[in-house]
Specification:
193 residues; Alpha-Beta Plaits; four-stranded antiparallel beta sheet; 13% strand
């Protein structure tokens, strides 16, 4: 029992550190002045994508490693794929690609994320939104909101960035299964469109 409590406490501490890391990186990209200086240690810096300010795969894995099984079973995951972004990156400069990724992440964090949700950059064109204690029906609504938010965002003339999002909920499965299930939901959404 004490092992579960230690893991739960560790999970909350890690979440608090990651949240502070998000705040400091978001402030750096947006130019906001922090109300108070937030120190982000080197361990957290290795878990955050320097381009977007979202968690990277290492950060997401570390977050999931600190979740007790009872918390994980309540977890919903939203997998977000930027449609044809890999092809579009070739049209943009690296600076523009990074800027668009920053805007996408900022838009999702500001308009779609709850206080406990964590956003991670999975690859060049994929993001993962981890939603603790979110029912699947609510996660599906949130996935639709993410897609609508990005798809309706006003981009510079000649630039069109869209995304598709799929949601899944853990039911005793591991992270690998959960991600694959959410990816399968994206394929269903693309076929339905």
């Amino acid at each position: 029992m004490s092992n579960v409590m230690n893991k739960l406490t560790g999970s909350k501490k890690l979440f608090a550190k990651m949240t502070d890391g998000f705040k400091s990186i978001k402030q750096k990209f947006s130019g906001e002045q922090p109300e108070q200086a937030i120190e982000v240690d080197d361990e957290i810096n290795t878990m955050i994508c320097p381009v977007t300010g979202a968690l990277n795969r290492l950060g997401l894995r570390s977050y999931f490693d600190h979740i007790v099984p009872s918390e994980f079973n309540k977890m919903s995951l939203i997998f977000i794929e930027l449609d044809y972004f890999h092809d579009k990156v070739r049209q943009f400069s690296t600076k523009d690609s990074d800027k668009y990724l920053q805007q996408i992440v900022t838009e999702i964090i500001e308009t779609c994320c709850g206080t406990q949700d964590l956003l991670a950059r999975w690859s060049l064109k994929e993001l993962v939104l981890a939603c603790p204690d979110k029912k699947l029906t609510d996660a599906v609504k949130l996935a639709n909101k993410v897609s609508t938010t990005i798809n309706k965002k006003a981009w510079p003339t000649g630039t069109e960035i869209t995304c598709t999002a799929g949601a899944a909920q853990a039911n005793g499965e591991d992270l690998h299964y959960l991600i694959n299930h959410a990816k399968a939901e994206i394929l269903k959404a693309k076929k339905a469109a």
